[in-house]
Amino acid sequence: MLWKTGLLLACGLTLGTAQARDYDITKAVTTKDGCIFYTYPEYQVTSASWEGKCTPGADLEGKGTLRYEARYMDEKEGFIGNRVTTDAGVFKAGRLEGAGSRSRDFFDKEGRKFKEIRHKGNFQAGWKKGLGESIKDHFDVKTGQVYMHVVDKGNYQEDNLYKEARRVVTSPSYRRFDKKILDAEFYPGGDIRSARVTFTKTVLGGDIVFEGVLFEGGYEDTITGFAGGYGEEEIEGILRRSAGNIKIVVKWADLNKGERFLNSFKLIRDNWRVECYEAKGFDKQMMQCGEVEMHVKQPEFDFTSRPWEGAIYRLFDLSHIDDARHPNPELQALVEDRLRAERAARQYAQEEAERNSSFSRDEFQSCVRMSRQVDQMARDLDAEEGRLDDAHSSMMTAKAMIEAAHANGLNISTAPFYDRQNSYNEMVDNYNRNLERAEAKKDQYNSRCGKKGTVPTAYVETYCLGVETHFCGRWQKD
Known about the structure:
Blueprint: H1 5-10, E1 27-30, E2 36-39, E3 43-52, E4 62-74, E5 78-92, E6 95-107, E7 113-124, E8 127-139, E9 146-157, E10 160-170, E11 180-186, E12 192-202, E13 206-215, E14 223-226, E15 234-241, E16 244-251, E17 265-268, E18 272-282, E19 286-296, E20 301-304, E21 315-317, H2 329-355, H3 361-407, H4 415-449, H5 457-463, H6 470-477
Antiparallel strand pairs: 1-2, 3-4, 4-5, 5-6, 6-7, 7-8, 8-9, 9-10, 10-11, 11-12, 12-13, 13-14, 13-15, 15-16, 16-17, 17-18, 18-19, 19-20, 19-21
């Protein structure tokens, strides 16, 4: 099914302007001295004091400090908790205007603090607007301890970071690195578009940097890959050590939880590659892995640890990762004699099979990856079409209900229809982009991987074990 964006947009109703946001700062409240200020409709202010010039019955004007406590109410859940706000600076028409500061403490129903925010910067009509810096602490309500500390610095729009800004996150749970820094671009509303993410002072003896990182839902703890890495489970970055940079590859899912950071990873230099699976321990000079794979080009050397070989073979000496020639010379000396004869026999059989193969090893492995991507894209598009059908049905239902109400003289809000229409059009645009990517990827796959012939059994056993793809199915059936 090919969705036509222009036609879908044309089916909308010609309705009035959007309704005012329900989170605008529009609720008038009076201080104990009779001065008026404005806050959110969800706030039920219980006390308010003002230090500054006050004219009873008039909006706050001029320099001063406003402090107020409020009950936060939700239409569905009712009382959520208390909020304590302190605004300092110049007020205009009852709202903070220009340079100033705002602090907010958040309490749950039981009166336990779970968050506090301290902001300095520029304000406009009570909103954070322009350059500013916010410090946010999240508390464990049971212990009262801070479990996450977030510092945001950059440009704000309507209380949220907008365009280019920096976010620094620290937490006691970050045991394998010191802090996470996001040099990000933010959408209006505060969602992250993309970012350069830096993990500082990692257990590998340096900072790790990932460029062009993408996020699910715009949240900094939902990394889903990087630009150009569609469909890949891994994300590439750079380990910056004092002796030089080393390429590092990790599973992006492991970057979303501090305790899984570097759970499995690859270190890659021009002459060697080391892969660590299920890392269990680190110290200043050694890392312990559930399994280690090591591949050296010159002199050629491959090694994979197994449980029966003993724990010594699952340790990797970090002091050698700056050596461009070999990452662990001691290990090579221990196993090279045993591996030489096995390698020679395997190499002869492998070369004979590869000479008659339709694909080189790299081509075969690349086709397995591409086939997996094409298959996944097709499944994703099928699921996305179903969601589009549901969204279209919901939008047209809202349209019919509004038109019926208007026909009967009812002044019903058009906001639900516009919300669904905007969401639906965004879904269509995203579907069309994904469809174009899928078709391009499929054409690329067919041109590279459609060759007939034979391949070594080792290719199939190595790269197709446990893999269900169209490409692997060709050779597994044979």
